[in-house]
Amino acid sequence: MDIIKEVKEEFEKIFSTNPLLVFSPGRINIIGEHTDYNGGFVFPAAVDKGIAAALQKSDTGSCTAIALNLDSTINFELDKLKPSKEGSWENYVLGVVAEIQNRNKIVGDFNIIFKGNIPGGAGMSSSAALENSVVFGLNELFDLGLTKTEMILISQKAEHNYVGVKCGIMDQYASMFGIKNNALLLDCRTIEATPYEIDFQEYQLMLINTNVKHSLSDSAYNDRRSACESISEILGVETLRETSEEDLEKIIDKVTPENYQKALYVIQEIDRTQKAAKAIENNDLETLGALIYASHNGLQHQYKVSCTELDFLVDQAKKNKYVLGARMMGGGFGGCTINLIAKNEAKSFAKSVSKTYENKFNNECSIYFIALSEGTHLVK
Predict the structure, then answer these.
(1) Residue 199 and residue 375: Cα distance in Å, rounded?
(2) Which of 223, 248, 262, 363 has its CA 20 to 30 A from that of 333?
(3) What are the backbone angles phi and psi of residue 135, rounded to the nearest 5°?
(4) Binning pLDDT at 50, 70 and 90, where does residue 96 land?
(5) What residues contact 59, with CB distance under 8 A and at least 6 apart?
(6) By residue range, what is the domain housing residue 290?
(7) For the chain, give me the number of helices (H) and strands (E)?
(8) SS3 state of residue 64
(9) Which of 171, 223, 284, 311 is flagged as catalytic?
């Protein structure tokens, strides 16, 4: 049964009323990793997996939120919002409500039930999909008059202030503004995107999930963000987007070698992302693939957010002439690799890589094929 039907039926069963239905997608990112909070370019696309939410006004004087996947329920009152314990799903919902209130918008009591089919820990932004489904649904339900851009800034703030991850804007943007069969070259400084129709002809994108998540990911993410910010400060610029390799060389003796490499990676990745858009425009998949491999190399050796499992999958891809490019995708330390692979060879590579991965790590990887889909929307 599809998840939209499931949340609708569950909602009607529990609350005996007809809900508003929202679908909010997860996303992939072709290239441009850890560049969004540095004001750079990213190249994401919304996918056909995501979060389905059913919501409606409540007349009980409080709100109820139910996470069907986790079989978990919370009740809360709108005038007593505060973050729940760290790492819990509630903070994504509570944070969005709190940030709407911070904009002096009036939200009434409501009930919400949601379920996702984004694989957990895959780095496909189930968190942004959930935040967007809540803000989009409440905007409709209470006629708040928020623009899509205002909505994603609310989602981002919720993640900063309630979840405690200082994320950039890419995940929320891609999930909200996705266009079917397109990837979005997003300028994170202006929050404006150019859509690129994606037709890789004989090739396709395939995700391989390591099914591992090494625990340092959130703290390491915030550490890297502050390293980039401190280098920007030394350079006297707002973000690393405004700087160049030459500028960076001038302050080489003022920063640690590790942080120098991190900043260098960001500057080079911003450049690679723009080149990738040109390659797609020219149907030059060889160049696109080489840029994707170079991105992984930087994430592994310079930015240092990869892990043994991800590196192993990328090395396996490099040994296969039908894979034009592969890299880790998302924050790092686990999650997926994204692979640009010949359509007629994808199944056999999936089979062989699954086997070698299991032999090496005594753990199974998962393979996903995805379609690029539209952003957060009401389901009629």
Answers:
(1) 19
(2) 248
(3) -65, -40
(4) very high
(5) 109
(6) 199-369
(7) 11, 13
(8) strand
(9) 171
Confidence label for 1 from pLDDT (cuts 50, 70 and 90): low
For residue 288, which amino acid is it? L
Q: What is the C-alpha to C-alpha distance for residues 53 and 282, in angstroms, rounded to an integer?
A: 39
Q: At what angle do helices 126-141 and 170-177 cross, to 10 degrees?
A: 60
Helical segments of the chain, H only? 3-15, 90-102, 126-141, 148-158, 170-177, 217-235, 245-250, 257-281, 285-301, 308-318, 346-361
Are both 224 and 121 inside the same structural domain? no
The CATH number of residue 308's host domain is: 3.30.70.890
Residue 330 CA to residue 328 CA, distance in Å, equals 7
Is 183 found in the same domain as 98? yes
Average pLDDT on 92-96 reads 98
Supply the DSSP symbol for 162: I
| Residue of 77, 73, 21 lying closest to 52 (CA atoms) | 21
pLDDT 10s digits, 134-155: 999 999 999 999 999 999 999 9
Mark whether 171 is an active-site residue.
yes
User: Shortest CA distance to 340 belongs to which of 285, 299, 270?
Assistant: 285
Q: Which residue has the tokens 């610029």?
A: 237
- Is-contact 268 260, C-beta < 8 A? no
Tell me the pTM: 0.93
**Do 111 and 220 sit in the same domain of this protein?**
no
Note whether 138 and 237 are same-domain residues: no
**Cβ 284 vs Cβ 306: under 8 Å:** no
Q: Which two tokens mark 220?
A: 């390491």
Nearest Cα to Cα of residue 62 among 72, 74, 77, 73: 77
Q: Are both 245 and 358 inside the same structural domain?
A: yes
211 with 233, same domain: the answer is: yes
**59 and 149 in a common domain:** yes
Total residues belonging to the chain = 380
Here the tokens at position 237 are 């610029």
pLDDT for position 124:
92
- CATH number assigned to the domain comprising residue 162: 3.30.230.10
Number of domains into which the chain is organized: 2
The predicted structure's pLDDT at residue 168: 87
Mark whether 183 and 213 lie in a shared domain. Answer: no
